Amino acid sequence: MAQDDIFKKIIAHSKEYGFIFQSSEIYDGLGAVYDYAQNGVELKNNIKKYWWDSMVKLNENIVGIDSAIFMHPEIWKASGHVGAFNDPLIDNKDSKKRYRADVLIEDYIGKLEEKIEKEVKKGIKKFGESFDEEQFRATNPNVLRNKTKIDEVQKRFVSALEANDLDEIRNIIIDLKINCPMSGTCNWTEVRQFNLMFDTKLGSVADDANTIYLRPETAQGIFVNYLNVQKTGRMKLPFGIAQIGKAFRNEIVARQFIFRMREFEQMEMQFFVRPGEEMEWYEKWMETRLKWHKALGFDQENYRFHKHDKLAHYANAASDIEFKFPFGFKEVEGIHSRTDFDLSQHQEHSGKKLQYFDPETNKNYVPYVVETSIGLDRMFLLTLSAAYKEEKLDNGEIRVVLRIPPALAPVKLAVLPLTKKDGMPDKAREIMNELKLDFNCQYEEKDSIGRRYRRQDAIGTPYCITVDHQTLEDNTVTLRDRDTMAQERIAIEDLYDILNNKVNIKTLLKEVL
To answer: How buried is 289 (Cβ within 10 angstroms: 0-12 exposed, 13-18 middle, 19+ buried)?
Structure first.
């Protein structure tokens, strides 16, 4: 099945089974804004908990805060967002569609990388166990040809970005014959910069109001509170501050469902270190964060690191953890060495000292920062994309199942009486009332047991408990596993311990330790 078709099915599945709705849908919707539905909000909260606990619970030197969305406007001048938070945009004159010029070029490079990977897969298929991938990549003519193209385009592209040469960026698009996906033509306008921040007014009278901004990132809320946290928490370097919160960007080219939205959530941790030790911590956090992702058990080949060719003005090193979505490898999380840029800028603009007194060196200095920043909505989409499966059963039926890790599943178990009579609903309710104190459960008695299993498969419920005639005789139930569809008889008194071992968030956290 084509990857575009799979992505369309995931989007349709998200609505049909209560994960994501178009915002303001009864008013024809609002572009690039979505609402998380009943199952979606549970999955989202579970992802948050997994991230938060892995940061704050597992690390004695990391604490959390929740800073305000509205912040003093001078903060965004100090951080560089007022003057430099822009996207290069280009329009196709025939389709009238607008695109990010940098994304068009990056997609072109991505297609060349896909060609290389196809050649490698051919080699693996042809030579089997004797295949030497390193030698193949270094000698295969098709691989080398595409690698040369990539290097040439990247060198030219990075040079244009560093020089902020918008004309050269357009020339690259023209020279590469990158066509508009809608019109198929290369009839492009000039490239223009567009600031992404939403602004509003603070105050009751418009004339007297100050212009303030909806925050485009959560990191600055951490930086301006760094000294407060350090002093009140008596924190010693190295230490980190974690935060989960909303951010807002006026994306003109929002696309790919919830991957790029105008209102989104970030999970960020800023780790403060001694100057000179930042690269050691940068490498450590790259390793730690990838381990966090891989603990979910999704296909390991769908993850990769992408090192930034052009560094942001605040960074001396930056890499992304990318995941292979149905629309290709895309960034999910960034790990950046931000140097002392942010704290130094806020120290200069505010006139307040943001230095740390190091009792070991007996010196004052502005700490360096290593950042890990993950998009919660992108992590949500990653989970759906990796979990969505269509399986052909022995009877020819197609089963749609979300193989969400049990600890993240929105519903942990469903309690199902086999029939609506003979006291089975009463017994099922009794079990439900006991287990719902610890697990998010669903009770369902409508339709055949097979149809109910399918509905639970479709929302990713890892376990179903079926109450039948035997239950009334010996206090045992059938426990059905979502992934294997295997069923076993379990004593009701053993249910809690068995389920807790399978669905508790601790099962994931132990993998991260």
So the answer is: buried
Cα separation, 472 vs 449, whole angstroms:
18
The percent of residues in the chain predicted with pLDDT above 70, rounded, is 98
Nearest by Cα to 181 from 22, 10, 327:
327
| Strands 388-392 and 368-375, sheet pairing | unpaired
Q: How many helices (H) and strands (E) does the chain have?
A: 18, 23
Q: In whole angstroms, what separates CA 223 from the centre of its chain?
A: 22
The Cα–Cα gap between 373 and 247 comes to 12
Task: Identify whether residues 261 and 173 lie together within a single domain.
Answer: no
Q: Please state the length of the chain.
A: 513
Output DSSP code: residue 291: H
Q: What is the pLDDT of residues 67-119, one digit of tens each?
A: 999 999 999 999 988 877 778 889 999 998 888 898 899 889 989 988 998 89
One-letter amino acid at 159 equals: S
Q: CA distances (Å), 322 to each of 81, 290, 314, in order?
A: 25, 10, 21
Q: What CATH number does residue 440 fall under?
A: 3.40.50.800
Quote the number of domains for the chain.
3
Q: Give the Cα separation of 264 and 247 in Å (integer).
A: 6
Q: Which residues pair with 244 in a beta bridge?
A: 267
Domain CATH number, residue 30: 3.30.930.10
Whether residue 187 contacts residue 94, with contact meaning beta carbons closer than 8 Å, is answered with yes
**Which alpha helices (H) appear in 312-363, and where do they start and end?**
341-350
What CA–CA distance (Å, rounded) separates 466 from 499? 14
Biggest alpha carbon–alpha carbon distance for the chain: 79
219 shares its domain with 353: yes
Asked if the structure places residue 203 within a domain, the reply is no
Q: How far is it, in rounded angstroms, from Cα 32 to Cα 262?
A: 6
CB-based contacts of 505, cutoff 8 Å, min separation 6: 46, 49, 50, 53, 407
Same domain, 367 and 437: no
Q: Domain of 330?
A: 3-70+214-385
Distance CA 203, CA 211 (A): 9
In angstroms, rounded to a whole number, what is the distance separating the alpha carbons of residues 248 and 81? 13
In a domain, 321, yes or no: yes
Q: Is the pLDDT of residue 204 over 70?
A: no
Task: Give CA–CA dist 186/211, Å, rounded.
Answer: 39
pLDDT tens readout for residues 428-463: 999 999 999 999 999 999 999 999 999 999 999 999
CA distance linking residue 334 with residue 217, whole number of Å: 13
User: What sign has the CA pseudo-torsion 59, 62, 67, 72?
Assistant: negative
The verdict on residue 208 lying in a domain is no
Q: Among residues 363, 385, 407, which one ends one of the domains?
A: 385
Residue 149 within a domain:
yes
- Decide if pLDDT at 207 tops 60: no
